[in-house]
Amino acid sequence: MARRVSVPRADDIFRPTGEIGPVRAVPDSGPDTEAPPGPRRPSGRVRHDEKMTVYVTSDELLDLEHARLVLRRTHGLAVDRGRLVREAISLILADFEVHGDDSALVQRLTEQ
Asked: What are the start and end residues of every segment in region (Disordered) (predicted)?
């Protein structure tokens, strides 16, 4: 006897991931609303509601995977590629906020 496979409905696949509040294009710039910038921290292991696709070369993907394996083997850190990329983004943006024109990001982008 053939076995039927249960397939999810479209409502289950395309459900919203969370409440989306109003979005402001420009943040308030008044002195009462500005908080002093704190150190930039990556989001870590939380549920992420936003998605971004980035295309990399085969060598870049191998380098990323190699870094992930070295972190696991040498430091006992079991991280996935997504967390590794979020950490890298956090580091480079924090450096950019602190050093501006002298940041590694500006220097690397102006080399090309």
From this structure: 1-48
| Helix, strand or coil, per DSSP, at residue 96 | helix
Q: Tell me, what's the pLDDT at 15?
A: 61
pLDDT the model gives residue 34: 46
Cα–Cα dist 63/57, whole Å: 10
What's the rounded Cα separation, in Å, for the pair 47 and 36? 26
For residues 67-83, one letter each, b for 16 or more C-beta atoms within 10 angstroms of the residue's C-beta and e for the rest, the string is ebeebeeeeeeebeeeb
Q: Which of 89, 4, 112 is nearest to 41 (CA)?
A: 89
**C-alpha to C-alpha distance for 40 and 95, rounded to whole angstroms:** 9
- Which residues of the chain, if any, have pLDDT below 70? 1, 10-45
* pLDDT value, residue 84: 94
Q: How many CB atoms lie within 10 A of CB 100?
A: 10
